[in-house]
Specification:
Elements (H helix, E strand, L loop, with lengths): L2 H9 L3 E7 L6 H10 L9 H5 L12 H6 L11 H17 L2 E8 L11 H18 L4 E9 L3 H12 L12 E7 L11 H9 L3 E6 L5 H11 L3 E4 L7 H10 L2 E4 L1 H7 L10 H6 L4 E3 L11 H12 L3 H13 L9 H8 L2
Parallel strand pairs: 1-2, 2-3, 3-4, 4-5, 5-6, 6-7, 7-8
The structure holds zinc ion.
Zinc ion binds next to β1.
């Protein structure tokens, strides 16, 4: 199969991205424009140089720290309602153009409150941007996953949940919050710190995922399963080294959100052919192929599918199965719009 026909085939599938971060998916051109408007454009810097602050550069970037560095520049512009709304709309636009028909966008509201927005205003702006795009494109569905930063601790995670409950999907006609997640440095903040927050999220009716086993070993994934009861695990890369854990994930039907480029860049795997994706599938684990951060990782969802085809020799039938499995992992409720989800679930 030629690269062109491969690309065409992938684009013809209704794709779902269940793991995409707001802050890592912003158009560089939008940030460039905002940097000029907000008097923070560095004199003499051109657009190509500016991009390097935002996107992974194979030639000079190496580590998780290099990766996390890319999130600093956007934060000064994402403190304002209209910017958040515009960016959410553009993220939906770019995803749709790439073939994504179901998008779960995740955001941590607390880091967008530095100019005085409330948690609900941050989520409201995100909802509005995604809803506007959804109204223009009825074959597109979106939801929001609220992230609690691990470094903010379990108490703030519980407060955050109470703040966002009114933004829940079932209370709104368009887009709403459908899930809860924890993200950020794994080592100092083990899953057990968030067991009460996850119990509360469950009580509130939120679906749950958790970043785990990206920079830490499989024991953190065990812990996340035992203490947090998530339906999905973000990355879960280190599970590939633990056959018992893979059995457990398969037995419990816990999805793993796999992000190939991101895992390679942060060093979660040394090379693509070491990635546990094929082992996950062989073990009967449900997998959703996702982007993590299209801008930071300099990728697209169709690009991640291409990568999987190249690295693991997947056929069209394999890719169709993977795309189908990814769609079925969604947290989006089958509410009034549920029929549409059900229809293309079986597409
Ligand atoms: Zn992530």
């Amino acid at each position: 199969m030629s690269p062109d026909s491969r690309r065409e085939f992938i684009r013809s599938l209704p794709l779902a991205d269940l793991h995409r971060h707001f802050d890592g998916s912003i158009r560089p051109s939008t940030l460039w424009e905002l940097s000029e408007r907000y008097y923070s454009a560095v004199p003499g810097l051109d657009f190509e140089q500016f991009r390097r602050y935002l996107e992974w550069d194979e030639k000079q970037d190496r580590s998780l720290l290099d990766y996390l560095d890319k999130f600093h520049v956007p934060l000064q512009y994402t403190q304002f309602y209209d910017n958040i709304k515009r960016i959410a709309y553009e993220i939906a636009t770019d995803a749709y153009a790439d073939g994504v028909r179901l998008l779960e966008l995740r955001i941590n509201p607390l880091i967008h409150r530095r100019a005085g927005l409330t948690t609900r205003q941050v989520i409201h702006a995100t909802r509005k941007g995604l809803s506007r795009f959804g109204t223009e494109h009825p074959d597109f569905r979106a939801g929001i996953i609220v992230i609690a930063m691990r470094s903010h601790g379990g108490n703030l995670a519980r407060i955050l949940l109470r703040e966002v409950i009114g933004e829940k999907e079932e209370y709104h006609a368009g887009v709403g919050v459908c899930g809860f997640d924890i993200a950020g440095p794994e080592a100092p903040f083990p899953p057990v710190l968030f067991s009460e927050a996850y119990a509360l999220a469950r009580k509130m009716g939120f679906k749950r995922t958790a970043h785990a086993g990206e920079s830490e070993g499989p024991e953190r994934i065990w812990e996340a399963l035992d203490h947090l009861g998530p339906q999905r695990i973000g990355h879960g890369t280190s599970a590939g080294a633990d056959p018992e854990l893979m059995k457990r994930l398969a037995r419990d039907g816990v999805y793993v959100e796999v992000c190939l480029s991101s895992n390679l860049q942060t060093g979660a795997v040394a090379q693509l052919r070491d990635h546990p994706l094929p082992r996950f599938l062989d073990a009967g684990i449900k997998v959703a192929l996702c982007t993590d951060n299209p801008t930071v990782s300099a990728t697209t969802l169709s690009g991640e599918y291409e990568l999987a085809m190249e690295a693991f020799g997947y056929t069209e039938a394999d890719v169709r199965r993977l795309a189908d499995m990814s769609r079925r992992g969604t947290f989006l409720a089958a509410g009034p719009d549920g029929q549409r989800v059900a229809k293309w679930m079986s597409a």
